[in-house]
């Protein structure tokens, strides 16, 4: 119901915006050039792995490379459109074209929202958003916006939730040489798995920006309903609470990035991650870096409903499917560089050593994988 109301709330102003656009095009020849902004972004390149290993994709897609696989499927392209149809109102939409987890060509609508500028650096927005849990979750598809070749945020993002439809309030407080950014969000989230149904999302974040550093913290709560893949209800009122803290500090040509997040859920898995990056600007265009990351899924036992046999039938032989119990962890260390060309595009080259260990499946024992991943990308915006 909330989703339908929000779609209507966004669609009506959009129709008004289109009508306003058509009217003003006839009235003023250059109006559309001032009111409409269109931008595109892309990541084009190849990724090679010497063993079967999971890699972090540029979209919200779980991608596993096979041994000695050279893949071009981590490429992505997208389009952004912003239309200002009144002094305080604007509409923004962003979509991406990418390859899905089955390596089939797919597309996604990442952003679509109406924005109202309240004045005094305060804004209200309504529509579809990427979840602003970590800096990287909002701009994961726009590779040019980050230093590194691969996203810092794991594929699970904000506990597996990729976006939401709802309302946001943003407020900036400006001091002499710094800013304080406050954000509140509420809405209905969508999970990557079909058998997890997000019911309500609430988020509060606070960020501080100064001349040579920034710091941001976020607290996220999601109420959800979860079933088994065979559609047996497990819990219709489960809850997940997540927290994150990130920072960047620049001293002359040295850039330090660090972050961590943690989540606690009623129905496992819990998750946590941390990263640390050191970069040095050898010139205005060339920046080499080193980065370390760790992410972990922690599975705990929970009650799973059994399937009742039809009247007069005996219960099926054997128990329910094996329930994960334990940790699924991935650690990585990467070396790479970014070289910026004139004209808003950059070359990124990264070598990453990945070590994965999964002991959550008792029938398989501890499964260990390690391998090297080489990525070469051209990324840009225009």
How would you explain this protein's 3D organization?
The chain has 382 residues and is mainly beta. It has one domain: Porin. It is 9% helix and 59% strand. The chain is built from 3 helices and 19 strands. A 16-stranded antiparallel beta barrel has the order 1-5-6-7-8-9-10-11-12-13-14-15-16-17-18-19. β12 and β13 form a beta hairpin. The longest helix is centred in the N-terminal third of the chain and has 26 residues. The chain is globular, with a radius of gyration of 23 Å. The two termini are 38 Å apart.
Brief digest:
With 382 residues, the chain is mostly beta strands. It has helices at residues 2-27, 31-35, 135-138; strands at residues 36-49, 53-56, 62-65, 69-71, 76-84, 89-99, 105-119, 122-130, 161-174, 179-191, 196-209, 213-227, 233-251, 254-265, 270-280, 286-299, 326-341, 345-358, 367-381. The chain has a 16-stranded antiparallel barrel. Strands 2-3 form a two-stranded antiparallel sheet.
Annotate the secondary structure layout.
Blueprint lengths: L1 H26 L3 H5 E14 L3 E4 L5 E4 L3 E3 L4 E9 L4 E11 L5 E15 L2 E9 L4 H4 L22 E14 L4 E13 L4 E14 L3 E15 L5 E19 L2 E12 L4 E11 L5 E14 L26 E16 L3 E14 L8 E15 L1
Antiparallel strand pairs: 1-4, 1-5, 1-19, 2-3, 5-6, 6-7, 7-8, 8-9, 9-10, 10-11, 11-12, 12-13, 13-14, 14-15, 15-16, 16-17, 17-18, 18-19
Q: What is the domain tally?
A: 1
What does the largest sheet look like?
16 strands, antiparallel, barrel
The stretches of 5 or more residues where confidence is low (pLDDT under 50) are 4-23
Please report the distance between the alpha carbons of the first and last residues. Answer: 38 Å
Question: Main sheet: which strands, in order across?
Answer: 1-5-6-7-8-9-10-11-12-13-14-15-16-17-18-19
Give the C-alpha Rg. 23 Å
Quick one: how many beta strands?
A: 19
- Count of DSSP-assigned helices: 3
Specify the CATH homologous superfamily.
Porin
Order of helices and strands: HHEEEEEEEEHEEEEEEEEEEE
CATH top-level class: Mainly Beta
- CA-based shape: globular
| Helix-strand makeup class | mainly beta
Average pLDDT score: 86
According to CATH, what is the topology? Porin
